[in-house]
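Morning F.,

Quick status update on the modeling queue. The single chain you submitted on Monday has been processed. Sequence for confirmation:
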Amino acid sequence: EKLVSSVRKRITREDFAGLAEIYKLLGNSMRLKIIFALEKGELCVCDIANAIRLSIPATSQQLKLLRLGNIVRFRTDGKMAYYSLVSPNLYNAIRNDTQFIGGHERSKK
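Structure tokens below.
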């Protein structure tokens, strides 16, 4: 009874709907690649597109979704748009997941 009550209290404090929305955004390999590309710092759209081997218009579309999800921020300098991660914590979490998946795949063999 005490354990269930404790779990219930903890669950009610979390924003699971917001977290689910972030997971939806992360459910796309190109958006994950963009997050990895921005890990070292700010990049322009053309550099991101080049790094992930995607067209500039397609990259811009993915960046727009990430921006609307508050995962990346952007600034303009003349005609150039530059993007960066809102928080490095997201990259760190995803990086940990890739290490988990790698270890999980090795343990299946």
